[in-house]
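Issue: copy button drops trailing tokens. Both records pasted manually instead:
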Amino acid sequence: MKKTLKIIGCIVGSLILLAVILLLVYKFVFDPYHGTNYNYTEAKTLNETVSLQQAEKDLTFVIKILRSRHPAWLEEGNERVPIVEAQYEKEMSELKEAGEREVTTLEVWQRASRILHQMGDGHTGILARYNAYKVVDCWEDINTYGYPVEINGIALQELYDRFLEHFFYEMEYYAADRFYNEMIVMDSYLQLLGVDTTEGVDFTYATDGGGKTIHYAFSYPNPREAAQTEADTDTETAFVSYEIDEENKIGIFTLTECNYTDHYMEVLDDFFREVSEKGVEHIIVDLRENGGGNSYVADQFLQYLDIDGFSSWGSKVRFGPYLHINEPQYVPVTRRENCFSGDLYLLSSYQTFSSAMDFTMLVKDNHLGTVVGEPCGNLPDSYGDVLSFILPNTKLTLRCSYKRWQRIDRSKEWQPIDPDIPCDSDEAMDVAYETILGSR
């Protein structure tokens, strides 16, 4: 009996040891989240310095993460990989050429940005994160005179060209939208592009009377953010809302972030309940300012439609040295008692990105509704699902994709989500209304 118990104990002990070993192997070899850091971490200020060796260590950290986590390095014949590797070697060589010296956080950010830009992945990039960003309060002048033609004597076109060398994007119109409507007023990004912002900046505008130069100081925090109401900044609830236009039988569902939360599900359920009770015939989903989040928000929305199901996308997921392939799926829908069977319109813009683009693709490629506005900000055939890391010395934030998505409609591979009714995104709501009312 004792011998039997001893044997059983040995077997159990061996199984436990094996389980522990397998768990450790998965954790340190296959788990894509190993070593990630999602805690908000401020980067060192841009003029703070690290040693040359520390700067080299940060850039080496970037390329090691790409090699060990990004799917591209396991894709046979991926043309981007050697380009990224070559840029890394170039940046490291240039860094060493100046000899022993102190290196600013700004220079590390610039060099890492140029490396990651070569990836052509809108989700993989480097960020200098701070609690708030200094900006110039010049929007009133831009509204009056248009965009400046020069900043500190540097042509705006030249700054834009520099921006394209540092920014991570898939579609240039998305990059242009970010540059002209956000980056040109931000202290940190102007520094990234080589603008000396120590004494503020001079914006030169082209006017009927010739060039007009206005000097701006940077303010902290962002005055536009400070002017927002408490309700606007309550991101836990303000990201989703709706209204019912009873007169025209139109329901408008606005989603500025793809947050899959209990609050989202409550609002979604309330919306479709009122849609049913008030006889709504047309729904407009506004995703124009939605930069993404969790794709399940779209799946849940479609569960309220009068459909049998919908096709979803395939993907490749990297687990350490292994690239797992998920085939496209068909997602069945169990019809609700008061499911919506009217017309669906979806508003998109260049800022409709990531999971918001996925939402648009589900509607577009399954022929569930009409897309109105501008093309989405990134491609359906793209990398995504971001891992977050902190560079060891400058504390810059590295974002790296570990999945690759495939468009549902494979006949449109590598094509953006183009709207069915193209128009300026600012006019998309009016165009959707005109289309609905004109169809009656």
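Record 2 (pasted manually too):
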Amino acid sequence: MNIKRKYPPQSLRGILWSVKTSNLNLEKDKTYIIHQILRYGNLKQISWLFKTYGKNTIRRVFLEQPQKIYNLPNFYFIKDVVLKIKKRTLISKYDSTSLRNIRP
């Protein structure tokens, strides 16, 4: 991980819209930051993500802390092209249109 600063740059505030970027900590809030940029970011922002966290950290967060915010084309692009993950049975953990179990 190559974190030299404590907060994400202001240029990411359009993607990290639910929290002020100055209130985000790159280490503590990495799950939110990584998923938001993977889902909504452009190639320049995804490049920043890889420079900041590294491929292993991004893959680990993507696999171990899934979020249901991805549509199918975006999910497959991130999984297959960006992260080169070969697993096939991941979709239900990420697809924003799949049914959710809301009971505890």
